[in-house]
């Protein structure tokens, strides 16, 4: 068995998940929120209360990064739906630019500006 110092971050995360899972499916935090140890358990809880919005239940779950995550009551406006559909269309057409590509292009522009200034 490895010591904590010998474990990778992923191994330590998995160990913590196992310990939490063995202990309980949810707990009450200091602010009075039900905190579920998995998204699945949280979703099951919400399904038992179809008449309430997620924010009304004061519940959340711990995501894979160990952060409390909440389902949103937010509903897209007509404008938001149009922007979302436009984004999906651009992805389907292959016009979507990844973050890495955007950074590469920006660095290239900055390099050209520096050369032009010299």
Beta-strand percentage?
5-15%
Measured between the Cα atoms of the first and last residue, the distance is 60 Å
Q: Would you tell me the structural class of the helices and strands? A: alpha+beta
Assign a percent range to the helix content. 40-55%
Largest sheet: 4 strands, mixed
Oligomeric composition of the shown chains: single chain
Mean pLDDT across all amino acids = 85
Tally of helical segments:
5
How many domains, as an integer?
A: 2
Q: What order do the SSEs take from the amino end to the carboxyl end, as H and E?
A: HEEHHEEHH
Q: Compute the gyration radius: what is it? A: 22 Å
- Poorly predicted ranges: none
Q: What is the tally of beta strands?
A: 4
User: Order of strands across the biggest sheet?
Assistant: 1-2-3-4
């Amino acid at each position: 068995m490895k010591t904590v110092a010998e474990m990778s971050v992923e191994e330590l995360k998995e160990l913590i998940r196992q310990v939490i899972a063995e202990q309980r499916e949810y707990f009450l935090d200091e602010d009075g929120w039900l905190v579920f140890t998995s998204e699945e358990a949280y979703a099951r809880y919400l399904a038992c209360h179809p008449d309430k919005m997620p924010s009304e239940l004061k519940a959340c779950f711990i995501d894979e990064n160990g952060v409390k995550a909440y389902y949103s009551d937010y509903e897209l406006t007509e404008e938001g739906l149009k922007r979302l559909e436009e984004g999906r269309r651009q992805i389907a057409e292959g016009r979507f630019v990844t973050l890495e590509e955007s950074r590469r292009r920006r660095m290239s522009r900055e390099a050209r500006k520096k050369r032009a200034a010299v």
